[in-house]
Amino acid sequence: RDTSANGKFQYAFNPQLDATVTFHFSDGRVDLDNWGGPYGDDPNYRQWQRRASALAELHYAHPSGFWQQSAQFSYAGTDRDYRNDVDPDHPVDRSEGNYTGILRKVSWQNLFFPVKGHVVTAGYEYEEETGSSWYRSEGAWGPYEEQFPGRSASTHGVYFQDQLQYGEEFFLTSGVRLDHHSQFGNDWNFRVAPVLMVPSTRT
Questions:
Q1: pLDDT, tens digit, for every residue of 130-169?
Q2: pLDDT tens by residue, 89-142
Q3: Do residues 26 and 53 make contact, with C-beta atoms less than 8 angstroms apart?
Q4: Which of 63, 83, 89, 143 is most buried (CB neighbours < 10 A)?
Q5: What is the mean pLDDT of residues 80-85?
Q6: Is 167 helix (H, G, I), strand (E, B) or coil?
Q7: How far apart are the first and last CA of the chain?
Q8: How many Cβ atoms are within 10 Å of 84's Cβ, its own excluded?
Q9: Is 22 within 8 Å of 68 (Cβ atoms)?
Q10: What distance in Å separates the CA atoms of residue 201 and residue 196, rounded to the nearest whole number?
Q11: pTM
């Protein structure tokens, strides 16, 4: 069984500024087996999963047409419970567990249009992931327990990109990006991508 809900809301404050909000929620139960094939069926091994996500976006366009910017805020969460009680086929085996994970993102992007055929993009992104889990079981080999306490990792990113168009034949995109991970440090990436169109073939 599964229950879900989705929604989207949009509102324009004025011709230059508008906002959009979307969300999704689901709550479901799944019957699981111990393994595939003979004797793998388990009548009371179940998983309950709840998911929720939301995205809010603000978009602004300057009246001159020179500058556009957008800001996004997003959230995604998952919560899973597992439970397998004793039954006639497994009279001494039982287990249960849980996993919880959350992903948060924030981004800010700016587009500049200095002249026709020239677009400059600059922005910032932040992402944070957190997760935790636990598992307990009892059986013929005795009790077992495993704990994974809450852990988190985050990434900050800034980027710059320049797109140029010369006539209808030549396009050039170049950019640079710097990411800083909370555990792995800095990572630089560069990109230069020229494109030449052949008028006779349009390739």
A1: 999 999 999 888 899 999 988 999 999 999 999 998 877 8
A2: 778 888 999 999 999 999 999 999 999 889 999 999 999 999 999 999 998 888
A3: no
A4: 83
A5: 92
A6: coil
A7: 51
A8: 20
A9: no
A10: 11
A11: 0.81
Enter the tokens of residue 164: 């140029």
Amino acid identity, position 32: L
Non-local (6+) Cβ contacts of 16 within 8 A are: 60, 61, 62, 63
| Tokens 């990411």 found at | 179
| 77, 53 contact by CB (below 8 A) | yes
Token duo for residue 183: 């555990």
Strands 118-138 and 185-196: unpaired
Query: What span, in angstroms and rounded, lies between the C-alpha atoms of 96 and 32?
Result: 13
Q: Residue 28 carries which side chain, given as an amino acid letter?
A: G
Residue with tokens 């229950």: 3
Show Cβ contacts of residue 190 under 8 Å, excluding neighbours closer than 6 positions: 175, 176, 177
